[in-house]
Structures are given as C-alpha cells and as structure tokens.
C-alpha cells in the first residue's frame, strides 16, 4: 500500500509540474513583458487601476493624467496634515527616486492629496519642496480629487472632529508605478524599502 501511495504521489508531482510548465508557457505567450518584475497581483488586472483625472498642480496649473504621467512616475495619495505615515512614505519614495537617478533613470515622484479642503496649492508646494524639488504636489476640488482616488482605488475617509480645522483622514498607503505608454503597472506597500522599490522600478524600466 505504501508503494501505491508513493507511485500516486509521484504521478501527482509530475502532473503538477506539467500544469505549472503549461501555465508558465501560457503566461509567456500572453506577452506580459513585465512578468519577471511583478511583485503582486491586482484584482481585475492592471487595467482596473488608473485612468483619466484633472487636478491642480502646486504651481496653480490645471493638469491631466497625460501631463502628470509624462515619464515613469511614483504616485502616492495622502495629505500634508498627516502626522507620520505620509511624511515617512514620501521620504521613502523620494529616496527610491534618488537611487534611480544615480543609475541614470528619470522617475517622477507625485503626491496627490486626499484632503483638498486644507491642502491648497500653497500648502502643497511648501510640503513637497521640503522633500525634493521634483516631488509634484496635486490638489483640486473635492470632485476632482474623488475622481482621481476612485480611478486608482485609493481609499480615504475623514474622521469626525469637534474642530473643523483639525482632523485626521484615514487613507490607503499604496504607491503606484505608472509608465507613459502603459499606465499603471505596479504598486508598492508600506513595508517595501526604498532599495526594493528602486530595484523593481528598474526592472520595469529595463523591460519597457
């Protein structure tokens, strides 16, 4: 009986290897040029994230997604009054961009507010200038910001507060990699380091 189980187990392993090989071959046939770079799967596929938006830049200009994603970009949604998470994440993103710059790559860091009520053009400019001269801050009307967050599946929720000027905003903390020719291609979590981000972004740049 033990021998029978061993034979069946061997057959199962061979079958599994065959299925794995078939799926790998099929994945290559689908033409995913970034397969070797991907760090995670997105429900609905990469095409389910990203899309048109109209916002206002930190210089007061109205911009669209075509203006913003004119080069490889790392997009993060947060707000300037965020006590800790947003400054840390933006600093990490900027560090990744600087590492890529040392490799000769030009990647744009982007910060889109989820708190347009307080994050005016002037506030956004002062915040981004403290991190990096190329960090682009974007704000807009409530409707414009909502459209952008919806396009990227970014979550945000204003907390109740007795003081209308002092409140916190719960929000998702993903950073999105976008490429001009492809749109959204990858996301990064908070536990990804600057080095890890730079290496994965480099993989996408090399494959594009």
From TrEMBL:
Do you know which Pfam families this protein is assigned to? Answer: SCO1-SenC
Recorded GO molecular functions are:
metal ion binding
Q: Where does Cu cation bind?
A: 82, 86, 171
Cystine pairings recorded for this chain: 82-86
The UniProt entry, under InterPro entries, shows:
SCO1/SenC, Thioredoxin-like_sf
Which family is annotated?
Belongs to the SCO1/2 family.
Q: What is the name of the protein in this document?
A: Protein senC
Source organism lineage? Answer: Bacteria, Pseudomonadati, Pseudomonadota, Alphaproteobacteria, Rhodobacterales
């Amino acid at each position: 009986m033990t021998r029978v189980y061993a034979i069946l187990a061997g057959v199962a392993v061979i079958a599994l290897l065959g299925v794995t090989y078939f799926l790998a071959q099929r994945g290559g046939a689908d033409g995913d040029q970034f397969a070797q770079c991907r760090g995670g799967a997105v429900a609905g596929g990469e095409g389910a994230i990203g899309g048109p938006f109209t916002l206002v830049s930190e210089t007061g200009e109205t911009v669209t997604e075509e203006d913003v994603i004119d080069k490889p970009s790392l997009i993060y949604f947060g707000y300037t009054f965020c006590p800790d998470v947003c400054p840390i994440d933006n600093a990490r993103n900027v560090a990744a961009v600087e590492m890529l710059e040392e490799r000769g790559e030009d990647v744009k860091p982007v910060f889109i507010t989820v708190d347009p009520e307080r994050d005016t053009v002037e506030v956004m400019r002062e915040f981004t200038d403290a991190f990096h001269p190329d960090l682009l801050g974007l704000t807009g009307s409530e409707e414009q910001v909502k459209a952008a967050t919806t396009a990227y599946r970014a979550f945000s929720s204003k907390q109740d507060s007795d003081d209308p000027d002092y409140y916190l905003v719960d929000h998702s903390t993903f950073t999105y990699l976008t490429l001009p020719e492809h749109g959204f291609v990858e996301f990064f979590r908070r536990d990804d380091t600057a080095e890890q981000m730079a290496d994965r972004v480099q993989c996408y740049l090399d494959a594009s």
